[in-house]
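Anyone? Bumping this.
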Amino acid sequence: MKHEKTKHEFRANTLPALVTVGPVTIIMVLLIAVPLIYVAVMSFCSIDEFYNVTFDFTLENYVRLANVDYLKIYAQSIVIALVTTVICILVGYPFSYIIARTKSKKKKILYMLVIIPFWTNSLIRIYGWRTFLGSSGWLNSLLAGIGIAKEPIEFLYKQGTTILGMVYCLIPFMILPLYTAIEKLDSSLLEASSDLGARPVSTFLEVILPLTSSGIFSGSLMVFIPCLGYFFVSDILGGGNSDVIGNLIERQFQSGNNWPLGAALSIILIVVTLILVKIYQKLGGDMDSLGV
Amino acid sequence: MKREKKAKRIKRLSIVFCTLVYVFLFLPISVIVVNSFNATTTKPYMSWKGFTFDWYIKLWDNTSLLEALGNTMIIAIVSTVLATIIGTLGAIGMYRYKFKGKGLIDGLLYIPVVIPEIVLGISLLTIFAKVNIPRGMLTLILAHVTFCIPFVIFNVRARLAGYDNSIEEASMDLGANRIVTFFEVTLPVLAPGILGGALLAFTLSIDDVIISYFVYGQTKTYPLKVMESVKSGVSPDVNALSTLILVGTILFVVLTQGDLFKKKSS
Amino acid sequence: MKKKILSLIMVGAMACSMFVGCGSSGSAGKNGEINVFVWTEYVSESAIKAFEEESGIKVNVSTYSSNEDLLAKLKSESEGTYDVILPSDYAVEYLVAQDKLEALDKDKLTNLSNIDEAYLNESYDPGNVYTVPYEGGVACIAVNTAKVDKEITSYADLFDPSLEGQLVVLDDYRAVIGMTERSMGLSMNETDSDTLASVEEKLLTLKNNVKLYDSDSPKSALISGDCSVGMIWSAEVALAMDENPDIEIVYPTEGAYVFLDNWAIPKGAKNYDGAMEFINYMLSAEAAQMNISDFPYLCPNTAALEMMGDEYVNNEAKNVPSDVISSGEFVSYLDTDTLAIYDEMWTKLKK
């Protein structure tokens, strides 16, 4: 009898649970958990004379990374990410607001126009900026043509150029959640607020902003974090002068050939990410909304 | 009266502002399109040497570029299908059953969404190197499936949130077995979420550079091919191919737009 | 939501590219295929096409930007990923020390006689057991004389504060640090930590002068005018000079960074015979001619040089004078502790 019951239990619950959750569990464990644990282990490993990873415990990698020079690059990377995020908010918010509150049929077209550029491969678009901003690029030709600049102006290979590229790549991740949040706003609420005599500024600060803050938070997270890792943007537009943490990691796994050091850098990046996610959750952010 | 004037000014200002943002968004695209007609044949292909259609013809001889595009398609389709099946099953199972370690899997699912892609890339590289799986199509697909699954799950889960279990029970009461119920009842209800997740997975897969960069071996995808050409100057045939893809997509949207938006607004 | 719409559209994009891509799915050549891993902007596409036609072997080319990239990839990829590689002198030294190269079958290298003996039997591979030379050159200086008044004759001049924000230098730490060491009258292979501390001090004074780090195609920045002085590979200067007559080549008075790149087959190559056939073809006069026409580096292939004619031979940017080579220095492979110091300096420079 008891045996019967467990058998039934198995068929009713355990088997379907295994079939449904089994595959995803295997993949998540083998290709997310195990690799990340391995990276964490590797960050305490040494290398031999031929740069092969040896499993001798050491703190050397972290000691090297606590060096002032590395700290300066982290700081630079965080500054780049912060400025990028702020610009994305300052540009993205009013922009999303305007298109989300447009009443005409054009609204859909306006929305599509934000997305269309992103159907083209991101690298090639970043390269387009390089062509546009170069000393003999379009912008300089234009400026010379209308007589503003006699000598070409140097736009490329500066920190500002890297930020421009980051904003360009990531601004849709700010605009789209903001658009969704703003579109959901009930216009009767706004009318009520102004009917009650609230000035536009206070309507904005006290009604609109709190209701759309979720969009700002998730947008900021989705802009800030990738910014720390997008090494190709600073490679193409920064000319190696405004590296982000991603560049450091990429270098250690390619030319630097020091995987344990790269692993330690990755762990630092993971810690930064976790802190940001915690802050996001504290602010009431919904994790599922990031992936939808 | 004064208020109206002010409103008008604000309106004008916002039109100017939005136009500027659109100019910003479309600038590099226009560079790509224009350069695809550039007659220059010397690297780095930046200065304008006259108008030509040549690159649209030469493009078809660039077998490695077309092959890369083919690889991208294969990887995107295979990993989308796999990620959709695995993700949908997983979402349903996690919604319905209680088991040990559920919280852990839930936590793992957020990792590919929030963590910088480069960390995922290097962690897969180190583990593939450790167990000595040759890098190539297989590792690319494994990597893509991995980062696509969470997006499928979140989309299906959003749909499940409003899902009424009783219709399934009703179906079973009417004598349908579990499998039939799944295909006839559960799946149709979840379809929009599954479709959304699959499309998202597809999008992420075809444009991925950073993760693929660490696990590709000899199998180059289209974005990786572009990355390589960025090193020595993007040649106009790459621009031409990008332009074709862009035009194709726009045409597709224009043709299907009505449909698309009706579904969306529901 | 946000990405959902994005993706709806992407499907359309891909539906269109489907028929583009699928028509041309790659198939191996009738005589198999080889995977070739070479420097960016170094081996002529026409030479590779010609080889494919002649041999029926399909060639898949991948590229790297520094020896370190090559070594890293060789280590991280599983054995058998590459059939042919093109390491420089010190990378050969490293690979031989680790027993990572297959010995070359000399009987199959019928074109080896084309190579000038002066470039054979180098210290990193005595008897050319594992490698044969391809092309070489120096890391020299390019000056856009229309934009720079200062006379530049040496690596040391590159540190002059008047060149602020004007330089493109190689994104290659051994080259840039080696150049700094030469400018101080040192060897490019210093290991003493006190000496290296002073090298670091000097190196960091270069920081303000560098606008761009680029190993792949540094000529682009010179041609476009983004940079007016470069510390770059000699053929890159030669190509930039072809595009812009204001650009001149300067061989540094301290003696230059010299390199020689070599064909080799990594251990475990899947198609050894195909790889040998490829290498032998690259040693032929016509292949070498195509290669130096596209990428005019120092060419050890005397048969090809004869065919190129006087104009090429007398062009001192393309055919680097022999005294420049003899007064220069090769980089050698250093121990990991020393390289860690080099790496640290490099990080400081680029931060």
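Late reply, but here is one note on the structure posted above: DSSP finds eleven helices and no strands in chain B.
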